[in-house]
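Hi all, long-time lurker, first post. I run a small reading group and we've been trying to get comfortable going from sequence to structure in the token notation. Rather than ask abstract questions, I figured I'd post a concrete chain and ask someone more experienced to write out its structure so we can walk through it together at our next meeting. Sequence below, copied exactly:
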Amino acid sequence: MPKRKDTTPHIHFTGFMLYGPAPHMINSWVYPEDQMFAGKWHETSYWTDIAQTLERGCFDMLFFADGWGGGTNSASKRYAIQFPTHDPLELVPYLAAKTDRLGFAVTMSTSFYPPYMLARKLQTLDHVTDGRIGWNIVCSLSSGEARNFGSENLPEHDERYDRADEFLDCVNQLWESWEPDAMQMDMETGQFADPDKIHKINFEGRWIKCQGPLNVAPSPQGKPYIFQAGGSERGKTFAATHAECVFATAAGTKQMRETVDDLKSKLDDAGRDPKMLKVLWGGQPLVAASESEAREKFQAIRARIPIEAKLSLVAGHFNLNLSDINVDAPVAGLDIQGTRGMFEMYVKSDPNVTLRQIAESYLSGSDDSPMVGTPEQVADYFIYLIEEGGGTGFQITPAYYAPQYYRDFVEQLVPVLQKKGAMRTTYEGSTLRDYMNTW
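-- Answer (accepted) --
Happy to help. Here is the structure in token form:
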């Protein structure tokens, strides 16, 4: 790595999970060294431990990815590949009551939620969490999700984003349908609200019609903090229009810098201040007392994942039917209707890459990952990535059993990052938006 700069960047950290047995690392639910929560991923005590650990480590938030597909092939069921997934919207209020400061973000699809329902649920969650809620906008990615809602396929990739643009216009108008001082609750006159300050929106677009107003009072943040993860050109244009923070992936600092510069340019084109958008990179570090110990552990974790399971995960995210594809042929010509940004990242690094080669490292890293080592080594690598590649911080995915992984991260890596001035030691403000914007 090049020589460190004099000023250490402030780095944000969020914890990535699915409300299921494992998020990205296949079989990460297997062989926990600490048996406290073995097999209890569906119990609230498991999630309380994770949330309170992240809060102890001053993470910005616990983020829940989500989807309505899965379980459509044998491998996904055999190896719990992002299946089953319970509904995190029901879990977040419980965890908010068990924590004081930690933020939470949930994934909700513009393809299947009606705008009014989504706006109402998120505004209510912002009340229940005291302003600590965020929304990760997705348009859904798999044909399996479509079939669970009565359609054979999803609309084309870019059309889903076109509809999402309209969806955001509608929900933003709903969140703004109450003026800030509309609720009066005047005990003397008995007037609850000024009716002239609560408005119908009478929204009518190509896909969406909605009268309004929203029947939820203004919440602490006014609206949830907005995340988005689309890495395709259309996805980045959508993010530049609507998002406050983007979840991004890149292969090395050169791609990181190109992504950041591209997003800034798109924000400028959209008439927004490029400084308004935060960028969080995916990260799956593993630390131990020595580098050799960390690498041996990481290699053992990766080695127990069957190639059948790895290919199933990739096919699900790219929305591909493996029976129609030669997994050992170059993938550059495939028409990807799923997570196009991740696919393009691999092809950009190697135009001749095959699906099997992608599967070997997809969301699980490689045995020589520079994020594996001692706490000092990994902390320095995080700092280097932000200094050279840009961005705001990292979305951390467990490399092994989640409660134990996050405890190890907070107890071993966080103190080193804090000592270097790269990670906060206390929360500033009281809302998720405060955390993301004030440090």
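A couple of things your group might point at:
The chain has one domain: 12-178+210-287+372-438.
The domain at 12-178+210-287+372-438 is CATH 3.20.20.30 (TIM Barrel).
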